[in-house]
């Protein structure tokens, strides 16, 4: 499906806004999980800091890094949606976002994704899918790491 001109303009505005003024940008200190992710094909890097609550939910999240507008905007948009989410909600958003940007699988809750759906256009560009997923893959690793340390 081709993006309409209005949708393409909105996509560009949202990406530029989040890449120029990223939300939840920086580092968390203290008790948090830190994960470093990179995309060696383009040089994008991200450091994700996640503080989990007692139930494994996302109490706080921040990211730092460098990369293209899509990787930085996607990470910024993700932190806005994920902050305060339960583990189950975060996992569901991760799966739905992956479906949106890869075009594989079905989206369970479009309303929960909100403006993240605007990144659907990257599915036509496999290298850009990796950019859009960089922060999400770091979140997934942080959740795995927290679950492993939480079970010990």
Compact description:
The chain has 152 residues and is an alpha+beta fold.
Please count the helical segments.
5
Q: Describe the global form.
A: globular
Number of strands: 3
The CATH architecture:
Alpha-Beta Complex
Please give the order of strands in the largest beta sheet: 1-2-3
Q: Please tell me the overall pLDDT.
A: 92
Query: Termini, distance in Å?
Result: 47 Å
Largest beta-sheet characterization: 3 strands, antiparallel
- Residue share in helix: 40-55%
Order of helices and strands: HEEEHHHH
- The CATH topology annotation reads as Sufe protein. Chain: A
Number of domains: 1
The assigned structural class equals: alpha+beta
- Strand fraction equals 15-25%
CATH class designation = Alpha Beta
Our Rg estimate from Cα atoms comes to 15 Å
Outline the structure in words.
The mean pLDDT is 92. This protein has one domain (5-151): Sufe protein. Chain: A, CATH 3.90.1010.10. The protein contains five helices and three strands. The longest helix has 26 residues, at 126-151. Helix 1 packs across helix 2 (69-82), helix 2 runs parallel beside helix 5 and helix 3 packs antiparallel against helix 5 (126-151). It has a three-stranded antiparallel β-sheet with strand order 1-2-3, covered by helices on one side. It is an alpha+beta fold and 152 residues long.
Notable features of this structure?
152 residues, alpha+beta, Sufe protein. Chain: A
What is the topological layout?
Blueprint: H1 5-20, E1 33-39, E2 44-52, E3 58-66, H2 69-82, H3 87-102, H4 110-113, H5 126-151
Antiparallel strand pairs: 1-2, 2-3
